[in-house]
Design brief:
Layout lengths: L2 H14 L6 H15 L4 E8 L2 E8 L10 E2 L4 H8 L4 E3 L24 E9 L2 E10 L10 H26 L1 H15 L11 H14 L5 E4 L6 H10 L8 E5 L5 H9 L16 H4 L4 E5 L6 H13 L1 E3 L6 E3 L3 E6 L3 H6 L5 H7 L2 E4 L9 H17 L3 E4 L1 H9 L5 H18 L7 E4 L1 H4 L23 H19 L4 H8 L3 H10 L4
Parallel strand pairs: 7-12, 7-13, 8-9, 9-12, 14-15
Antiparallel strand pairs: 1-2, 1-6, 2-3, 4-5, 5-6, 10-11
Helix pairs in contact: 1-2, 1-4, 2-4, 6-7, 13-15, 17-18
InterPro entries: AAA+_ATPase, AAA_lid_NorR, GAF, GAF-like_dom_sf, Homeodomain-like_sf, HTH_Fis, P-loop_NTPase, Sigma_54_int
Organism: Pseudomonas veronii
Pfam family, one: GAF
């Protein structure tokens, strides 16, 4: 490799440092330049996040790699690279397991004898992450000088440094993460990452960052299993209250009397079993955030008492006349259509409007495109670690099946599916495999190409042959069937039928369904 070729490769990256580029595009260009400089079959840029390495960009590896989180303690090659002051090239017959075994595009067997090297990246003299290169040809890097990789790594470190500084200036994310970390360490809460690259997911993250900086009450809506609690945690982490408590309560898990006690607290003797005085969730969350999940399940009585606290910040413990002042930011979540509940008299209009100051809709998994593969990668790596496997991967037909499925249970369904399928597939192996591949058959998802998910109901005959009556009868059947599939959630029903929510409401009223 000549100095001229090295200069030719690096100059465009130097020019990119002064340009405003999306983080993903900046990292994609970085890997493209590295593969031009050091030809290989797979390359990756990984950021060190605590005890794990997080892939930020990959080239030549399966899409689900971006969703994986590699624990350094479980991947000795990564540990060696991070512990080295400069570039490291592994012997082609190294016995250390390769983290990308089963993940290289076009290679369905073991990644055993191959050429592999990598280099740690440092930002502000601190370890930031890794650059890795893999080649199927065992002598691909034989003539490559490690100095060239070191020179590239220095520019790569400058690139990621610029990308991070731009992001921190735009979103003040560094300060927010530090405050969130202080509270997580104090409370023992686990950081949960929101994974996705689709447009709907990015729009959601933008809204979280926007409303997170305010003190507005947020109503998170969305189908079961989309991750509403995760969104609430992200809003809290992006707020000025991030170093204060985030207290959660599932309103559907307790009877009405216990819900009041959980929310407002009680004094000794307030009810049978109240042996001691107890603070409620509002007092525990004072200065921080209170997250009420399944808020659509609250009774009208509890709604009225909550409304008073939200308006005045004052509450009384059950059995006490003493007032307590609290400063709490409220985030609520529901999979119900609360506007419809208000119209039907099952929900207080004043409480609904107090909750929905900033409504935030979480997109369903089927609306997020290829995010399903990134999330699958995250759950695959979790199960690989839990089951003690060398590699847990998806075959191409399994990936296609995941992309084609409708996901009525959303992310929670995907998580359970990956865990269940991995366990069953391992149980079907006579010997413990080095690489466990999950096929479409292992996932056991419905064959969406064989038949429509919801075939239209048959039209029954109408006496007299009136076409209008027959049409309305058919419309009732279709809407009722769709409502059943979505547990009578009108917003979800409207989305499946391709109708505006208000138009569906007017049609249902005309057909006598409301």
């Amino acid at each position: 490799m000549t100095a001229q070729s090295l200069l030719t490769t690096l100059l465009p990256l130097v020019a990119d440092l002064s340009r405003e580029l999306p983080e993903g595009e900046r990292y994609r260009r970085l890997l493209q330049a590295m593969r031009a400089l050091l030809p290989c079959d797979a390359a990756a840029l990984l950021r060190l996040d605590g005890e794990s390495l997080v892939p930020l960009a990959v080239d030549g590896l399966s899409a689900d790699t971006l969703g994986r989180r590699f624990k350094v303690s479980e991947h000795p090659r990564f540990a060696v690279l991070l512990g080295s002051p400069g570039p490291t090239r592994f012997d082609s017959d190294s016995e250390l397991p390769d983290p990308y075994d089963g993940l290289v595009d076009g290679l369905h067997g073991h990644l055993e004898i191959h050429d592999c090297m990598g280099c740690p990246l440092y930002v502000d003299d601190k370890p930031w992450g890794l650059l890795t290169l893999d080649a199927l040809d065992t002598e691909r890097f034989e003539r490559v000088e490690l100095d060239a990789l070191q020179a590239f790594a220095s520019l790569a470190a400058a690139t990621v440094n610029v990308a991070e500084r731009i992001e921190h200036l735009a979103l003040r994310a560094e300060d927010e993460r530090q405050r969130a970390e202080i509270y997580r360490q104090a409370s023992g809460q686990q950081h949960k990452e929101m994974i996705g690259q689709s447009k709907p997911h990015k729009r959601l993250v933008e809204e979280i960052n926007l409303v997170g900086g305010s003190d507005l009450t947020v109503l998170i809506t969305g189908e079961t299993g989309v991750g509403k609690e995760l969104v609430a945690q992200a809003i809290h982490a992006a707020s000025s209250r991030a170093d204060k408590p985030l207290i959660s309560l599932n309103c559907a898990a307790l009877p009405e009397t216990l819900v009041e006690s959980e929310l407002f607290g009680h004094v000794r003797g307030a009810f049978t079993g109240a042996l001691n005085e107890r603070r409620g969730k509002f007092e525990l969350a004072n200065g921080g955030t209170l997250f009420l999940d399944e808020v659509g399940e609250l009774s009208l009585t509890v709604q009225a008492k909550l409304l008073r606290v939200l308006q005045s910040g004052q509450l009384q413990r059950l059995g006490s006349d003493k007032e307590h002042q609290v400063d709490v930011r409220l985030i609520a979540a529901t999979n119900r259509d609360l506007a419809e509940e208000v119209r039907n008299g099952r929900y207080r209009a004043d409480f609904y409007h107090r909750l929905s100051v900033y409504p935030l809709q979480v997109p369903a998994l089927r609306e997020r495109g290829r995010d399903v593969l990134l999330l699958a990668g995250f759950f695959l790596e979790q199960n690989r670690s839990r089951m003690g496997l060398g590699s847990l991967r998806l075959t191409s037909d399994a990936q296609a099946a995941l992309l084609a499925y409708n996901w009525p249970g959303n992310v929670r369904e995907l998580e359970h599916l990956i865990g269940r399928s991995a366990l069953k597939a391992l149980g079907n192996c006579r010997e413990r495999p080095k690489i466990l591949s999950l096929s479409a058959q292992d996932l056991d998802l419905p064959d969406v190409s064989a038949a429509p998910i919801a075939p239209p109901p048959e039209v029954t005959a109408i006496a007299g042959g009136d076409l209008r009556q027959a049409t309305e009868h058919y419309q009732r059947q279709v809407i009722n069937a769709c409502l059943e599939r979505h547990q009578h959630n009108w917003a979800s029903t409207a989305r499946e039928l391709g109708l505006d929510r208000a138009n569906l409401g007017r049609m249902a009223k005309r057909l006598g369904l409301k």
